[in-house]
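Appendix B.2, paired examples.
Example (i):
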Amino acid sequence: MSLISGAWPSEQSANISARSPDTHSLGEHATQVSEALLQPYFAALRERSDASLALNVHLPFCPSRCLSCDRIAVVQHQPDELEHYVANLARELARAAQTVDTARPLTRVHFGGGSPNHLSELALATVFSHINEHFTVDANTQFSMELNPRRTSRAQLNFLKGLGVEHIKLEVRDVDANVQREIGRIQSLELLEDVISIAHGVNFDSIGMDYLVGLPGQTADSCEQSIDAIVSLGPDWLVCLPFKRRESRFPHQIAVDSQHLPSLADRLVMFNQVQMSLTEAGYEGVGLNVYAKPDHQLAIAQQEGRLALNVLGYGTDADQAVMGIGLGALGELPGLVLQNQTKLSSWHKMVESGSLSATSAVISDDKTTLQRKVMRSLMCRQSISVASLTASQQKEWVQPLIGNGYAEQKSGDYRLTELGRSMLPHVWTDSSPAFRAF
């Protein structure tokens, strides 16, 4: 038995070598859907007045595309094209608001990309205005945004804070100069120091970063130096994600030299280095692959057993439905993970016809919904009660993990072992949002 076999969902099931043409990155289990097919799920959401609602707004445009990019992204500089997208984003927001209960306050609005801050201040303000027009936003609504540090300025950060953005995440990948050259994403440590210093001065509630393991040119030594540099920057939290080259899905990645990619053994060493260095620096482990300062909301949720996981990543709300807005945006409703149209011209046509743009989904029956819940419980808490699972569920879902040494039974719980906490982040997480949707 290989090291990663028996760990559900397997890397093979997360890969998309066989899929319907329009399902893009949700995998071979995705099916093509229409708004009509999704109506029963929207109706069920409307009936659950206590369920919280979040928006995942995708702003896909970038000034350029680095080789590590595994998002639905579009390189675009023409103002009229960006304005066209913002105008149709307003149409999709209006249609989404008609579909769900608009009287229900949004608990979160997340802006992902692409590089959301590639849009002008006017365009961003327009998007915020349409969200406020079509949905209920109150003092408890959290706004978060992913930022390209190379497109960030003091004026922009002040502007975003003024719009209500409280949580930012800098898309960094790595701070090592050699790795940056390999992936075509050059951003100096001095630039990042300036951005984080300004962001602290603007008083964002939290400032996060990403660090990818498995990039071309990375070594154990470069990883150690990079994490030391990141610790010196002092982000409030960091997510460590494995990079996987998927040139069949992201054709630009054909330029990534596979000979320069670290081996699985090297990636495990680097991940452990990240874990040790950040823990020694006072960060607390959150879930499988996030590290946060002890007073951060994710660390507190971890301590109190409230940590949850959905297509937006780790959070504090276990009962949150997510509506995807925009090109390729991911959403999640009970029993359903869905993705919007990923081709820009087709997305425009769908939205202009008055339809939501969701085109593919993984529809789960009760068994697979529960399986995902069990997996997420293990990711969030590294344990699950034996009594919460039937004998057949224990045999089918937990015994393979135990057989590989990833989990063990102790004091009435199944708990991840040290090997499981080291290995499963490489099986169950991914740098591409759609590949970690489950």
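Example (ii):
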Amino acid sequence: MVRVEIADYDLFQVPPRWLFLRVETDTGLVGWGEPVVEGRARTVETAVEELFESYLLGRDPRAIEDHWQAMYRGGFYRGGPVLMSAIAGVDQALWDIKGKHLDVPVYELLGGPTRDRVRVYQWVGGDRPADVADRAREQVEAGFTALKMNATAEFRRIESPAAVDHVVERLGAVREAVGDEVDVAVDFHGRVAKSMAKQLAAALEVHDPMFVEEPVPPGHEDALPAIAAHTSTPIATGERLYSRWEFKEVLEDDAVDVVQPDLSHAGGISEVTRIAAMAEAYDVALAPHCPLGPVALAACVQVDAAVGNALIQEQSLGIHYNEGTDELAYLADRSVFEFDDGYVDLPEAPGLGVELDESVVRERAGEVDWHNPVWRHEDGSVAEW
């Protein structure tokens, strides 16, 4: 077999809060990845540089699994958002190169497609949800059949009955606006302490949410069985879990119905495919987290296409984080992410199925100073964002 080597790499911080990785081989093939922790792009950029300078340069990009193992295990200290996000972006780029080398989409290398198209959902309402009924109606008129909204803004450890009622009324208004044929997921965003999550999940049940997402802050996954016991609504979580080992514990508790690993945080295509297979063994669906850019979404769609338990895909068009820039801005061909009746067709181009407009990437690259806000309660103490 003719040897191919990783010859060069480059990193681009771009608006609104993304980091793109470009990897080039000595044969001229280029693969793209999206390694980032939102708000910590410079930190992840340094981690990616360390992986290339200490290990990846000069190696054959086609040995994806061997490189994944070396990046994960070779540094002795493992896991966490920074290392796993760095690995994720490298993994995406290597799969992109391998697909282009073999002239097939990545999903063909993962066993072939299990579906013809992937269902997507649209965000409504912003960080502090408001005007959600009108926005929901607009998105359904635009063709979406599934929506997601934040449940709350700041939420105290023990809240008033009125605060709970406001959340229920907000979802009720959306349900009335869009009817029962549209799925509406509710994201607790880790803002709700376990003392209120049981009550809030049970109260929302009257409006039949598709799922409640991240009902407790990370680190409190042991509370999920108690929350599940208080509601028949499916529970989703996982955007702040970074490896199969963390998902193993959640799955074994039998309290989660949908896992949501992020392909830019949880080790990339290789690791999320493994997480999906683990989840399937527990009769749990996959809905990858992706409020990110075009490379991350392309990687998600490749996995969604290949695994049997993919439920629905998050995407960031029109999301509240992307003021002034969206994922289409960096694409050479924007039609790859055209949504029809709430679905996106499987890409047919090789690799990840998207090509970035490199001139736009380079023109807009620079240090991007995006950080999530620090919220505070009325007494001045820090609130979950």
